Amino acid sequence: MEPRQKHTKNESGFTLIELLIGMAILVMGLLTVNFFLGNLLNKSGHLESATLATTLAAEKLEDLKNQALTTTLSSSNNGSDTLDENGNAGGNKFTRNWTISGTSAQTDVVVTVSWNRSGVTESRTLQTRLNQD
Q1: Bridge partners of residue 94, in order along the sequence
Q2: Per the domain annotation, does 116 fall within a domain?
Q3: Which of 14, 58, 109, 129 has CB atoms 3.0–4.6 Å from 18's, for a disulfide?
Q4: Which residue spans traverse the membrane (predicted)?
């Protein structure tokens, strides 16, 4: 049988205080990562809505430009519609308004798409000038 080893006071290892300090640092690091990921996901959702709103405004602007090729646009062509989160008609995520002003020679077309984000109304506006001779 082997003799028992004597324990000395210079044993290596972690003390309870060192473990608690290490765990506190780890928790703070994880909380920081969680905070930044939350902000990143929030910004990502906002950017997705803003990009879709800009696309919806551009689509309507193109529709109005194509319509101007066959008829003269005037303020009687002003309008609005509502769209869902995929850009389909009849939803309640986006509201798209378009106004037409100016003369028959130079017509200004403005398309605005707005949506509500956390109680704040956001919007994207595109405009162009058409020569309708």
Answers
A1: 83, 115
A2: yes
A3: 14
A4: 12-37
Cα distance between residue 23 and residue 14, in whole Å:
12
User: What ranges in the chain are assigned the alpha helix state H?
Assistant: 16-68
94 near 53, Cβ under 8 Å?
Answer: yes
Per-residue pLDDT tens digits for 15-66: 888 889 999 999 999 988 888 887 777 666 678 889 999 999 999 999 999 9
Residues 58, 85, 89, 93, CA torsion sign: negative
Q: Domain count of the chain? A: 1
Mean pLDDT for the stretch of residues 104-108: 84
The domain in which residue 35 lies consists of: 16-131
Asked if residue 95 is part of any domain, the answer here is yes
Does 10 map to a domain? no
**Residues 53 and 85: beta-carbon distance below 8 Å:** no
Length of the chain: 133
Which residue from 79, 113, 78, 121 is spatially nearest to 96, judged by alpha carbons? 113
User: Does residue 28 sit within a domain?
Assistant: yes
Please, which pLDDT band fits residue 7 given cuts at 50, 70 and 90?
low
